[in-house]
Amino acid sequence: AQRVTQPEKLLSVFKGAPVELKCNYSYSGSPELFWYVQYSRQRLQLLLRHISRESIKGFTADLNKGETSFHLKKPFAQEEDSAMYYCALSGQGGSEKLVFGKGTKLTVNP
Amino acid sequence: DAMVIQNPRYQVTQFGKPVTLSCSQTLNHNVMYWYQQKSSQAPKLLFHYYDKDFNNEADTPDNFQSRRPNTSFCFLDIRSPGLGDAAMYLCATSTGHGQFFGPGTRLTVL
After folding, report:
1. Which residues of A touch B (CB under 8 A)?
2. B6-49: pLDDT as tens digits
3. Closest chain A residue to B31, measured at CA
């Protein structure tokens, strides 16, 4: 069964501290992994895809197939990073159906 | 420059009264999705269109239907809304490189 687990519902850090949002997945095959972010009163938007291997807004995420994890990291959190973060997976192929985790609400305190 | 537009943003309906939510896109993407997101839960895929091909998720209730008259528009019809259908409904589009989401329509069922 396809499943995405984000173990932390809430995560609070201070500005300038490192932050790591955890994501583990279950999928039989080779999934695509994504991080989506939703800032307050804004729409859900794509932050990262594992295959692009980019750093967006200072965030990175590495796919660890052995641990079936795709943790999101940032070395120095900023207050504007406060948002809801969703990890998601899809099977490879054109339709890109997403299975989302329950999300982690990140609060960065001044 | 909104790319995925959902109308209305807020919809109130009565128990059992049919309601239609609409989504339009200016991106010319061939795939469109409808998700349901209940409070404090992850978005859950209801169905998607790959061009004109309709794909229903196995656990989507029959009460939910969809239409896609052309590339730009997609509609979600709830034939007989129940109290349990109160949720945020998200429309998204994709070309296979990450999904673009609309702002959502919040449905209230009285």
Report:
1. 4, 34, 36, 42-46, 49, 86, 94-103
2. 999 999 999 999 999 999 999 889 999 999 999 888 899 999 99
3. A95
Residues with Cβ within 8 Å of B12's Cβ and at least 6 positions away in sequence, in order, are B107, B108, B109, B110
A23: which 2 tokens? Answer: 């994501």
HSE of A50 in the Cβ direction (CA atoms, 13 Å)? 21
Calculate the average pLDDT of chain B. Answer: 93
pLDDT one-digit tens code per residue, B53-106: 999 999 999 999 999 999 999 999 999 999 999 999 999 998 777 889 999 999
DSSP A18-75: -EEE--EEE-SS--EEEEEEE-TTS--EEEEETTTT--BTTBEE--BTTTTB--EEES
The answer to whether residues B93 and A35 touch, using CB atoms and an 8 Å cutoff, is: no
Distance of alpha carbon B101 from alpha carbon B82, whole angstroms: 25
Structure tokens that stand for B88 in this block: 């945020």
Position B1 confidence tier, pLDDT thresholds 50, 70, 90? low
Structure tokens at A109: 């305190």
